[in-house]
Amino acid sequence: MSTPRNSPPPSPSTSSYRNAPTRSVSVRGETFSYRELGPQEGVPLILLIHLAGVLDNWDPRVVDGLAARRRVITFDNRGVGGSSGSTPDTIEAMARDAVLFVRALGFDQVDLLGLSMGGFVAQVVAAEEPRLIRKVILAGTGPAGGPGIEKVPALSVQATIKGALTRQDPKLSLFFTGTADGRRAGLAFLERLKERTHDRDKEISLSSFRAQLKAIRRWGRQAPSDLSAVHQPVLVANGEHDRMVPSPNTLDLAARLPRAELVPLYPDAGHGGIFQCHEAFVPRALEFLES
Which residue segments constitute the domains of the chain, with CATH numbers given? Predict the structure, then answer.
């Protein structure tokens, strides 16, 4: 059953993501934080974030670019950032929460953009809710049991520890290549994440981070999913040098999904390829959603 909004619906907005108000909705007794912007008509686009990500981890260039023509909604999953409750330790439970969130906002049909862990969640939602999900974009992600996915938790912890010792954001090494261009793109991305200076989200807690790591480890060790059950059109994108969810997983997804379109892998780009190459990704994503 859908739950009414707890916050008044926003008026049509063309403002930047940096100014989008943070709102909340009740989902089975828990409060989910979200932001939205863009035109109010049309099928909404729900964004599903990566490991440890909160509302402020979406690249404003990607959100603003999509919201120029689409209603875009970002949200914190249960127990993460400004959302209350206990963070699930399975991808399947995260997917159920995502569906409950969408229905709580009163939507009968939405599109999904899932990045990394959010892409795992999007695959489950698309398979289990064929009437709710119209189209899907999967970026920097892979199927259950995909090669290298079970190593994501170890890579993330190592990068976090190294980042703390070197005072360097771990996303720089995890999301971008080590080339001069890759590092430049990574630093520019980190600066964009600082553009919002008020009403910023809370960082993920250690307990929630551990729960997500457990969920990803389980996803990486699962038997491969039957992706033939996903009948929606799917756009698949990534950088060609993804060290977190190795790029061959992207090719595997495109080959196994019945209605997939593969964006040529972005050169000299990694896990954050859609952020690094936002000027190419946003028009392609809009074309796919509007076709």
Answer: 17-290 (3.40.50.1820)
